[in-house]
Design brief:
The protein is an alpha+beta fold. The chain folds into two domains: 42-119, Alpha-Beta Plaits (2-Layer Sandwich); 122-154, no CATH class. Helix content is 30%, strand content 21%. It contains four helices and seven strands. The strands form two sheets. It has a four-stranded antiparallel β-sheet with strand order 1-2-4-3, covered by helices on one side. Strands 5-6-7 form a three-stranded antiparallel β-sheet, with no helix packed on it.
């Protein structure tokens, strides 16, 4: 009994009509790829804070919009800001009033730090994440790649 083997690059004489070769399929796939590759991170911009100072208080006027853009609760972002800036304050109808004089750059630096720690996926960098609590541990779960990382509770 004779066995026939095909090696890479050889063509079978009894090739079934209608089937495409690997090279043809590869060329078709390459043609169907998008011409421009868009990185996922380009669609997400960290929102800029808008502050106003009144005496010894600093008011973040667009705080509700910032929290909504980050897809996080206002309370969570607020608790992080208070702890990281080492001040007292209160949340009032979509804005935050902090005790003390802070510049826009100082507040923006803390928002950027929050995004790095609690919003962006550590694996793929996508902003599409959510908090998941398993037993007593809080995890950041990526909806894009499925990665899960523990994060510190505030």
């Amino acid at each position: 009994m004779e066995k026939n083997y095909l090696f890479a690059g050889e063509k079978d004489n009894q090739e079934v009509s209608g089937l495409r070769s690997y090279e043809e399929l590869l060329e078709k796939a390459i043609e169907e790829l998008p011409k421009e590759i868009v990185k996922r991170r380009e669609r997400f911009e960290i929102p800029k804070v808008s502050i106003q100072r009144e005496g010894s208080r600093t008011i973040i006027k667009n705080f509700a919009q910032v929290a909504k853009t980050l897809n996080r609760s206002e309370e969570h972002v607020f608790k992080y800001l208070l702890k990281s800036m080492g001040t007292a304050g209160f949340l009032e109808s979509g804005r935050v009033i902090l005790q003390g004089k802070f510049t826009e750059d100082e507040v923006q630096k803390e928002i950027n730090s929050y995004v790095k720690d609690y919003v962006l996926c550590k694996e793929c960098g996508a902003p599409d994440t959510e908090f998941v609590r398993e037993e007593r541990v809080l995890f950041l779960k990526c909806l894009a790649c499925g990665a899960k990382h523990p994060v510190r509770s505030i």
